[in-house]
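JOB MANIFEST
job_type = single_chain_structure
chain_count = 1
residues = 419
[input]
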Amino acid sequence: MDTENTAPAPLSQHPPERPGAPLPEPPPLAGITVVAVEQAVSAPFATRQLADLGARVIKVERPDGGDFARAYDTAAHGLASHFVWANRGKESIALDLKDPRGLAALHGLLAGADVFVQNLAHGAAARLGLDSAALCARYPRLVAVDVSGYGPDGPYAHKRAYDMLVQCEAGLVSVTGTAQQPVKAGIPAADIAAAMYAFSGVLAALLRRGTTGRGGRVEVSMLDALAEWMGHPLHHTLHDGRAPGRTGLAHAVIAPYDAYPTADGDRVLVSVQNDREWRRLAEQVLLRPELADDPAYATNAARTAHRAETDAVVAGALGGLDAEEVVGRLEAAGIACARLNSVAQLAGHPQLAARDRWREVGSPVGPLRALLPPIGLPGGAAPHMGAVPALGEHTGPLLRALGMTDAQIAELRRDGVVA
């Protein structure tokens, strides 16, 4: 697909600015151009954060199908849910980088870029001359980001690094699940961790460039990122000699801190953080004031030592009430609590609705709902939430901007170098 002008679907409308009100600040990354040879989640999610902050992101894809995340599923009205989530607001150009003409077109884009991001398989970028060391030598102001599974060297450098594999290698799976069954996280935690460190690494490198005038290399690996996120269980093990056990929804070292069933079939998570809260729970929620001073329950150490008994007491008191009454009692007593929501309930969450967090973004299949970015910049321009691009949607305009004629572009299309 090749369109000259592709406008995103209208976003939610807000009241106009008051007469005389100051104009909003421009997006913080306005004027920054990012070129990304990316696929799957880790690099695309990083560059989507940059697009949300106003950067122009040019996504370079293979002509024969593009980013393979496009084919993960068809859940988003025929589009892949991963792709829709991680790729809004980008321009798509389809280039065969193994063809010298396609690689030359990429370098044409890089000559005017501020940031380059790639997460190709180990060694692939270097074979094309697209590793961060080579690019920073050629383009001194460029911030060049290598996102990998395990880093550029070491015994694991060549291993395939899909999200769940890295979750296993990083020990996340070992601390997630029940005592009987380890499970992976329900979201691509390794991909997201690497994406967010790549995103913040780009911001840091751009800030440094503003001082030094030079870009520089940024390296992020999925294993390094997720190992950092394993901070609590890792330090627990390093210094105590024992890893915290898997406890399902319960907290490993605090009780009661678990989800308890209610009479209407719901579940409510209750979090008691200290012994003062336990007293309030016993007196005002469980209606068992004698438990406040019972030596078997009065301290967190005692409650965790008698976790089964503690849970049974709490479950017995809450199990006869519906969820609304349980939440009402807990909130009245100042006890932290949460509903155990489904993903569908998240989509309809009253807090998201009340804070007007939903927008619509354009796509090849029409408007799609999307959440506002989590980073809020009050007083600034609205986040840039552009459309999800079709494969090669911007190939023609981008190549023309590099000085190619329509005849030259048609020749490249005929030869399969672009799409």
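[summary]
The mean pLDDT is 93.
The radius of gyration is 26 Å.
exit_status = 0
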